[in-house]
Amino acid sequence: MNLLPRASLLCALFLSVTLAPVTHSGSLSAKEQAMVDWIDAHQDEAIELLAETVNIGSGTMNHVGVRAVGDVMSRELETLGLGTRWIDMPPEMDRAGHLFASKEGKGKGKKLLLIGHLDTVFESDDDFQAFTREGNIGRGPGISDMKDGNAVIIYALKALQHIGALEDIAVTVAYTGDEEMTGKPLSVSRKDLIEAGKWADITLGFEGAITTEGSDWATIARRSSSGWMLEVSGRQAHSSGVFSERVGAGAINEAARILDTFYNEVRGDYGLTFNAGTIQGGTTVNYDSAQNRGTTFGKTNVVPSVVIVDGGIRALSLEQLASAKQKMEAIVANHLPHTSASISFVDSYPPMPPSDGNRHLAEELSVVNQDLGRGRMKIWDPLRRGAADISFVAPYTDALAGMGALGKGGHTPNESLDLDSMALAIKRAAILMYRLSGTAEEE
After folding, report:
1. How would you classify the pairing of strands 306-314 and 98-103?
2. Of 44, 69, 43, nearest to 56 (Cα)?
3. Residue 233: strand, helix, or coil
């Protein structure tokens, strides 16, 4: 059956939700205007910090580079009065570790967790290694994913310090060192981040913002990212006997039937997608899942005996993910005669569901956006964004992602950033944090 109408309906319902009308002054307070003026005056310094970190190669497996970027951010955070600590990972995990920084607040406002990451997808042997600039466009490895967001965090905190508000805010900054290739087990690599999420009231993720179709967009949800592997075996025989009661359909035909049934019976719920990334089949299969590559051997006159399919699955909630897994397992269990099949799952990034608390944060950010002279913000479709570290803390705190600057071409040699948007991102973050801190109410 074709479930696309249902998916389209659910998508329409998600995207049609407009932010509830909220009261806003239409202007900034005196202290907020002071932050805006300071940010405009220091935008070039923020870009210089961005360029400094982009020029440090920090692919996930380049541990020295990741640590070096961490040293730069630690330098900046310490000047703001935050205590910093480097969290090493066990040697067997082969990851550089994370930089965390925190300070207590004197006020009674919300405790804030700000998330960035130090690593990029570009390893030390990649040709794409340096920051370049042409007018207001900057290019370089990780410039929009997410070294811009890392700098935005620093300069938003500096703007708050400029007006004397930072000392009242309880804040933790988490810069992970392996977001692009997460260390396993997750119980170790994300332990400190999850603990910070349990401490916080509100989490802001600083990966890139979205501006398109003449509107600014808020990100209140991100999908999970997990893996699945289907292994199918069949009875090897001369191909003249395929489909017979003695031989059966063979491993490849059975794998094709299973995948087709996935497509027709599991697909359809808004937010749920699953992809078969590689398929190896024949009489002999050697597959290395860590490298996502393998070799096969088979002949057209031999019924194949083995198939391995390696895939990924994404969902908008844990319930949706669990339901999809159950359906897939049931389909696999109902295999054809003379074949057998099994499916296994490896969970990685959890989902960040679109909660009411997240929607409320988006409303507040929309008001900030309007007070800065821009339009109301819409809700971005989570199917159009990947997974992120903010999802690990979503069960414990209200969260808002996409607080960085405006970039494009992430994970490619064409990665670029609108440098003028750095100031906008810093202003939105600083004013939102100021209002969430409760300090603004006393002005």
Report:
1. unpaired
2. 69
3. strand
**Domain that residue 305 falls in:** 225-349
> CA 14: distance to chain centroid?
19
> Which segments of 206-272 are extended strands (E)?
210-212, 215-218, 225-234, 237-238
Q: Are residues 141 and 274 in the same domain?
A: no
Is there a single domain that holds both residue 126 and residue 267? no
pTM for the full model?
0.88
Same-domain status, 246 and 390: no
Per-residue pLDDT tens, the chain, 443 aa: give them.
334 344 444 454 454 444 545 544 568 999 999 999 999 999 999 999 999 999 999 999 999 999 999 999 999 999 999 999 999 999 999 999 999 999 999 888 899 999 999 999 999 999 898 999 999 999 999 999 999 999 999 999 999 999 999 999 999 999 999 999 999 999 999 999 999 999 999 999 999 998 887 889 999 999 999 999 999 999 999 999 999 999 999 999 999 999 999 999 999 999 999 999 999 999 999 999 988 889 999 999 999 999 999 999 999 999 999 999 999 999 999 989 999 999 999 999 999 999 999 999 999 999 999 999 999 999 999 988 888 999 999 999 999 999 999 999 999 999 999 999 999 999 999 999 999 987 666 55
> How many domains, in total, are found in the chain?
2
28 and 111 assigned to the same domain = yes
Residue 430 lies in a domain: yes
